[in-house]
Amino acid sequence: MDQILAYPMRESAVVTQALPLELRLDVFLGSIERRALRIAEMATRDRDEALDLIQEAMLRFVRKYRDRPEGEWAPLFHRVLDNGIRDWFRRQRVRGNWLVRLFSHSTEDDEGDVLERVVDTRQPEPARAYADSGSMAAIETALRDLAHRQRQVFVLRIWEGLDTRATADALGITEGSVKTHLSRALESLRSQLGDFHENRE
Amino acid sequence: MKTGNDGFALKIAEQLEKSANDLDSHTRMRLRGMRRRAIEQASRKTPFWFRGTPMLAFASVAAIALTVALWPRPPGPVTEVAATHTVEQAAPVDAQTLDAIDDQGTDEYPIAFEEDLEFYQWLDQQLGDS
């Protein structure tokens, strides 16, 4: 599992040290911003919220890590972004708890992550989405249905092309956890996108 | 270990890459603006006079605190008691001296009187006994 191929085997956007820092940052952020936006969007399910997270991540990354070696920039940027996403989830949970208390007459305590129990009614079932509007919608739905950690490990390892160690550093977890989360993510995706997998291989 | 998962995962990654490249122009412009703002922040150098300001402020506060801690304080109650005790002891002698000055009818201080103070005290005692 550890040797699984990643797309597109990125050579990372390391440019020569001779260039000014501003230009190197511009190249790096320009190479990563669209994927970062899609990652944030899959987590928040809202483009404006995702854009806010990207802005915050860029500012924090530049402020804190601009002087670090460029080889470390990608995992560091994703660490900043992941922290931002998790803070966003916490804020949503607090807001959700208050709304539940305000508008619900239930006296039962809410345990666990409210967002984990929320069903996204805007998105169709993966198989149906695949049939309706193509594979991307099905993939997005399947990825959104993953637990946050599984989704983050999948996109960083497979899409962003970080190796196991860099992924672990970016997410603040162990390499063993990365392997476990990736295995579970693939298993879940295969179960949801079986047709996609079988039809296109 | 190239398994069936490899192709499966890569196909998903291809689709994700395509979705990222197909972002609308408005979103791309917003991303570009965000990138510019972040990089402008990097290019803003900290003024040279501000670089050491936090350290300077800390050093100033520490120096003030040290000065206050070490500043000499007025004498405490124990010293005052000691001074009072000394005055009380000296009071009879001072009174004798002042009486002697009054007897002489002069403001000059009788140095010899002070030098022979013990003799005069003895003499006074002898006269009293007799």
3D architecture notes:
The complex is a heterodimer of chains A (201) and B (130). With 201 residues, chain A is an all-alpha fold. Chain A has two domains: 18-115, no CATH class; 123-201, Orthogonal Bundle (Arc Repressor Mutant, subunit A). In chain A, 71% of the residues lie in helices and 0% in strands. Chain A has ten helices and no strands. In chain A, helix 7 runs antiparallel to helix 8, helix 7 (148-159) crosses helix 9 and helix 8 packs across helix 9 (175-192). The radius of gyration of chain B is 47 Å and the shape is rod-shaped. Chain B has helices at residues 4-21, 25-43, 48-51, 53-70, 77-104, 111-115, 117-129. The longest helix of chain B is centred in the last third of the chain and has 28 residues, at 77-104. Chain B folds into two domains: 4-70, no CATH class; 77-129. Chain B is built from seven helices and no strands. Chain B has 130 residues and is an all-alpha fold. The termini of chain B are far apart. The chains are: A mainly alpha (201), B mainly alpha (130). Chain A binds chain B through residues 1, 3-8, 21-22, 25-26, 29-30, 33-35, 37-38, 47, 51, 54-55, 58-59, 61-63, 66, 135-136, 139-140, 143, 154-155, 158-159, 186, 189-190, 193, 196-197, 200-201, and chain B through 1-21, 23, 27-28, 30-32, 34-35, 37-39, 41-43.
Number of strands of chain A: 0
Structural class of chain B: mainly alpha
Largest pleated sheet of chain A: none
Radius of gyration of chain B: 47 Å
Architecture blueprint of SSEs:
The complex is a heterodimer of chains A (201) and B (130).
Chain A: H1 21-44, H2 47-65, H3 73-103, H4 114-117, H5 126-133, H6 135-145, H7 148-159, H8 164-171, H9 175-192, H10 194-200
Helix pairs in contact in A: 1-2, 1-3, 2-3, 3-8, 5-6, 7-8, 7-9, 8-9
Chain B: H1 4-21, H2 25-43, H3 48-51, H4 53-70, H5 77-104, H6 111-115, H7 117-129
Please summarize what this structure is:
The complex is a heterodimer of chains A (201) and B (130). With 201 residues, chain A is an all-alpha fold.
